[in-house]
């Protein structure tokens, strides 16, 4: 079944078509009021969420469909030890499409492999978050008028911030996008994004620790919070939590046309005074997220009706290498096969199919 696990599951043409649908919905909401009548969305949230879960639910309700689900792991059978595969099989009996957020990287992929309905990754650990990227792309498209020929600064926790990983994977497919990666040394972008995304497609990027020096150059400033829940050592979080604070003073150095995005929630990395600046686009971005999720639900249900399937990597190793990433779904679900896809045959480089951790053969 066609699902959305990683943003690169969709082509640039498909992304554009989703944005066109979203813009059409914005202008003609009444036309879509019954588009999903009789259909059910299941929201399986094993991790906290406000915007993603509720915007999915609002999206389905505005399409005339209905919603079932849970908002914390403790209220599901996962707390009794049920596997992701079994949960996905069960939900396939009750719903037409499902959205999953999970702390383990690769959990939505496991669900998609076992479900007979489309699965949407609503965030898996520190790995990726493709539907936030849909909101981000529509925001840049509507606010800046283009997705090519732009300089985008990503600031904050680039190590654990899954929204940045997915956004960069999407932007790497547009022309002439330059990226400035602004983070403390300890929270730099992980190798699976730097090597497999930026370097593979030859995207121009710079790494820096200074927001002040980067800001004048930017068309988009993508702020993120430091991801407290993903730190093993709370003392490291305490030391890094206030690394960047965007305030009205720093905004003075930015272009008049620059836009500030943030997937939210914000902790204190953007001063509330910046909200009054017309360049602050983060609340509009949250609204765009609902429209893109409406467009996504319509697309995946239509693809399912057409019998479209997920594309799978061909060159894989099964149970030859073992993933040792403690955040990978294969670390908790003992019976899952350890599957690695080949990235570079000559040098024996493989990546875990669930979490993209690298191994050498
Ligand atoms: C993001 C997430 O969950 O990764 N939030 C969201 O979906 N809007 C960002 C975050 O939690 O920092």
Radius of gyration: 20 Å
Spatial gap, N to C terminus:
31 Å
Biggest sheet features = 5 strands, parallel
Bound molecules: N-carbamoyl-L-aspartate
* Distinct helical segment count: 12
Helix content: 25-40%
Instruction: Summarize model confidence as the mean pLDDT.
Output: 96
What can you see in these coordinates?
It is a single chain. By secondary structure, this protein is of the alpha/beta class. Helix content is 34%, strand content 17%. It has helices at 12-27, 51-62, 84-94, 107-114, 130-144, 162-171, 191-199, 211-214, 234-240, 248-251, 282-305, 329-332, and strands spanning 40-45, 66-70, 97-102, 119-124, 150-155, 177-182, 204-208, 220-223, 259-261, 316-318, 339-344, 349-352, 358-360. The strands form 3 sheets. A 5-stranded parallel β-sheet has the order 7-6-5-8-9, with helices on one face. Strand 11 (339-344) and strand 12 (349-352) form a beta hairpin. The longest helix is centred in the C-terminal third of the chain and has 24 residues, at 282-305. The mean pLDDT is 96. Bound molecules: N-carbamoyl-L-aspartate.
Relevant terms:
single chain, 361 residues, alpha/beta, four-stranded parallel β-sheet, 34% helix, binds N-carbamoyl-L-aspartate
Structural topology:
Layout lengths: L11 H16 L12 E6 L5 H12 L3 E5 L13 H11 L2 E6 L4 H8 L4 E6 L5 H15 L5 E6 L6 H10 L5 E6 L8 H9 L4 E5 L2 H4 L5 E4 L10 H7 L7 H4 L7 E3 L20 H24 L10 E3 L10 H4 L6 E6 L4 E4 L5 E3 L1
Parallel strand pairs: 1-2, 1-3, 3-4, 5-6, 5-8, 6-7, 8-9
Antiparallel strand pairs: 10-11, 11-12, 12-13
Helix pairs in contact: 1-5, 1-11, 2-11, 3-4, 5-6, 5-11
């Amino acid at each position: 079944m066609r699902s959305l696990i990683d943003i690169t599951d969709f082509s640039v043409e498909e992304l554009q078509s989703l944005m066109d649908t979203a813009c059409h919905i914005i202008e003609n909401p009444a036309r879509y009021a019954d588009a999903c009548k009789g259909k059910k969305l299941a929201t399986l949230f094993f991790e906290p969420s406000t915007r993603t879960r509720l915007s999915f639910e609002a999206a389905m309700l505005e399409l005339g469909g209905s919603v079932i689900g849970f908002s914390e792991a403790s209220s599901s059978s996962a707390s009794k030890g049920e596997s992701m595969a079994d949960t996905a099989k069960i939900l396939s009996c009750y719903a037409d499409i499902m959205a999953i957020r999970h702390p383990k990287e690769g959990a939505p992929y496991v669900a998609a492999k076992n479900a007979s309905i489309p699965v949407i990754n609503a965030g898996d650990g520190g790995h990726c978050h493709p539907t936030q990227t849909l909101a981000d792309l529509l925001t840049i498209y509507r606010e800046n008028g283009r997705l090519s020929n732009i300089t985008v600064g990503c600031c904050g926790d680039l190590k654990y911030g899954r929204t940045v990983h997915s956004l960069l994977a999407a932007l790497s497919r547009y022309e002439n996008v330059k990226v400035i990666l602004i983070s403390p040394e300890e929270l730099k972008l992980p190798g699976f994004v730097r090597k497999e995304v930026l370097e593979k497609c030859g995207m121009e990027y710079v790494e820096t620790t200074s927001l002040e020096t980067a800001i004048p150059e930017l068309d988009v400033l993508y702020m993120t919070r430091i991801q407290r829940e993903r730190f093993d050592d709370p003392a490291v979080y305490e030391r890094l939590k206030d690394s960047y604070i965007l305030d009205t003073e720093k905004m003075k150095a930015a272009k008049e046309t620059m836009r500030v995005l943030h997937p939210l929630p914000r902790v204190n990395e953007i001063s509330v005074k910046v909200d009054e600046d017309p360049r602050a686009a983060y609340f509009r971005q949250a609204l765009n997220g609902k429209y893109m999720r409406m467009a996504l639900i319509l697309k995946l249900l239509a693809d399912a009706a057409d019998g479209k399937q997920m594309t799978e990597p061909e060159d894989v190793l099964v149970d030859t290498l073992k993933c040792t990433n403690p955040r990978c779904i294969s670390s908790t679900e003992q019976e899952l096969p350890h599957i690695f896809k080949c990235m570079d045959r000559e040098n024996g480089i493989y990546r875990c199919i669930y979490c993209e951790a690298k191994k050498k053969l």
